[in-house]
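Handoff note, outgoing to incoming analyst
You'll be picking up this chain. Sequence as last confirmed:
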Amino acid sequence: MRYWVLNLGMFSPRDWHVEAIEWDKDLRSEAAAAADCAEVWDEDCSDGQVYEVLVAEDQHGRNARRFKVRTRFEVSYDVRKEEDYKIPPPESDD
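Most recent structure output, in case you need it:
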């Protein structure tokens, strides 16, 4: 689906007709387009960053909707190997 988007952190809604860009990707919804834009625009990858994005299916913005997108990064740990391990006996102090 093709959408038109405007980063409200950089532009005013009045700039729509000049600054809105075509976001032609295989996305299923306006919300997905807003999230995709935030991912591209987040240059420093900071957790908790908020982006306000106007998204419309219409180039002229007649059906525009405003979205607030907050970045959230999660850390996960992947365990790759498990094996039995025998602890050696304590060393003697002799």
